[in-house]
Amino acid sequence: MTIARRDFLKVVGGASFAGSLGGIALPAAAAGASVPNFGFSDDSVPMNAANICPIPLSVSEAEAKYARELDLNLSPATRSRIEALKEDARTRIARLLGTTADELAIVRNTSEANNVIVQGMPLEAGDEIVLWDQNHPSNSVAWDVRAARSGCSVRRFSVPTGSGSVDEVVGLFLASVTDRTRVLSFTHISNITGFRTPVAEICTAIRQKKNDIHIHVDGAQSWGAVAFDLGKVDCDSFSGSAHKWFMGPREVGLLFVRERNIGRIWPIVVSVPWGADANAAPKGARKFDALGQRDDAAIASLGVAAALHENLTPAGVQKQSAEIADRLREGLLDAGLPFVSSVNPQFTSSVIILKAARENAIQLVTEILKASGVITAAVGGFRMSPHVYNTADHVDRIVAAAGKSRALFETL
Ligand SMILES: Cc1ncc(COP(=O)(O)O)c(C=O)c1O
Predict the structure, then answer these.
(1) In percent, how much of the chain has pLDDT > 90?
(2) 45 inside domain
(3) φ/ψ (deg, to 5) at 218
(4) Mean pLDDT across the stretch 218-243?
(5) Are residues 296 and 378 in the same domain?
(6) Do the Cβ atoms of 188 and 199 come closer than 8 Å?
(7) How many CB atoms within 10 Å of residue 100?
(8) pLDDT score recorded for residue 36
(9) Is residue 54 part of a domain?
(10) What is the pTM of this model?
(11) Could you tell me the CA-to-CA distances from 401 to 158, 375, 386 in Å, in that order?
(12) How does pLDDT run across 375-405, given as a tens digit for each residue?
């Protein structure tokens, strides 16, 4: 047994795994909460939340109902009722994230949220932008484009997935920042390795070193997956997509901008919701979602997804997803398969990636779907991202299938 496996089992060994063939077993925190119904069939089970989640029937039915109500009667009364549901969704999500509705913009996806920060940040020639090298293109290439426009420089730094301690990782973030740094932008949980950064510790340490840096956190892989309190994580902005772990409507995203930054960041789209003149900006972070006509029914249905998280509790969702992911990690380690992702519990997440060459990973997705009925992805290697709708049976099926296809993985 390797050291990594021993460490992993020390932590996982005590956890009570309650998933079963019969469906989702709720964690204690959510006992009594109602289990969302997704309706997918047993031969096409999604395990790809890092890309896109199925939408629970309660959310998709609400979305269809709101759309129908609008279609049947597009009167000002119907429209303002749906508009009020959108504001209710904003308030509920803010509460779940430990912030206020005035600090939340409802945009289209994480890419757009990241780009509000990238394009809207006041930067001058010579300013330095520091990026984690595992960022998504919308938080990486987008900065290169911005830097070219404004004469800024971009510097990237690495964090080995084999890092041994939180202090070591925080130290690498601290070392990346210089006197010229104006922006530090990184991903809470990487989509290409599954590495979970110690986001609170990083923000605190950076603030102590240099207080005037804008810290942007891409939360595409964490919003809806892990309990996250923006009152305790001292970032300046945070982004996410409802269609990933939040299990919400498609093409709805989130941008948190802390109150102190709202005035100085420029919007990237200004349309009717803005108001009649330049000074008429909507209240708070709403200035970043002053797009033209939106899909109001989809945004309103966000409130139903928020109710689901209120019911399960963010800590309950995190626990359930982590228990499933831990079982998967343990099974894959037992099978002797090669990990891209860290197995150090300080940095693990529900995004689990095994080493495979790109063309092999694509073949693995097809072979494993055929053998196990579970849908995965070829990102960063062979990627599995289980969520609360996955069971022990799904995990066991995929572990068995991965073992049979072991020739397609890189050798250890
Ligand atoms: C870390 C991260 N950031 C941003 C995105 C972009 O998300 P979207 O396509 O919803 O804009 C993704 C998508 O996978 C992601 O993993």
Answers:
(1) 91
(2) no
(3) -85, 115
(4) 98
(5) no
(6) yes
(7) 16
(8) 81
(9) no
(10) 0.93
(11) 33, 12, 16
(12) 999 999 999 999 999 999 999 999 999 999 9
In this structure, what are the phi and psi dihedrals at residue 130, rounded to the nearest 5 degrees?
Answer: -110, 130
Q: Provide the residue type at 300 as one letter.
A: A
- Under DSSP, the state recorded for 254 is E
Ligand 1 centroid distance, CA of 227 (Å): 19
Query: Which atom of ligand 1 is closest in space to residue 241's alpha carbon?
Result: 10
Domains contained in the chain, number:
2
Atom of ligand 1 nearest to the CA of 243: 10
Separation between Cα atoms, residue 276 and residue 175, nearest integer Å: 46
Ligand 1 center–CA 406 separation, angstroms: 29
DSSP assignment string, 120-175? HS---TT-EEEEETT--GGGTHHHHHHHHHHT-EEEEE---TT---HHHHHHHHHH
Spacing, Cα 220 to ligand 1 middle (Å): 5
- Residue 111 Cα to ligand 1 midpoint, Å, equals 6
Contact 322, 350 (CB under 8 A): yes
Which structural domain range is residue 372 located in?
3-35+313-408
Q: Do residues 365 and 295 share a domain?
A: no
321 and 382 within one domain:
yes
Ligand 1 binding site (Cβ under 6 Å of any ligand atom): 51, 109-111, 136, 138-139, 187, 191, 218, 220-221, 241
CA atoms within 13 A on the CB side of 397: 24
Nearest atom, ligand 1, residue 253 CA: 10
Calculate how far, in angstroms, residue 77's C-alpha sits from the geometric centre of ligand 1: 36
User: Among the three residues 292, 310, 328, which one is the final residue of a domain in this structure?
Assistant: 310
How does residue 34 score in pLDDT terms, banded at 50, 70 and 90? low
Residue 51 Cα: closest atom of ligand 1: 14
Mean residue pLDDT of the chain comes to: 92
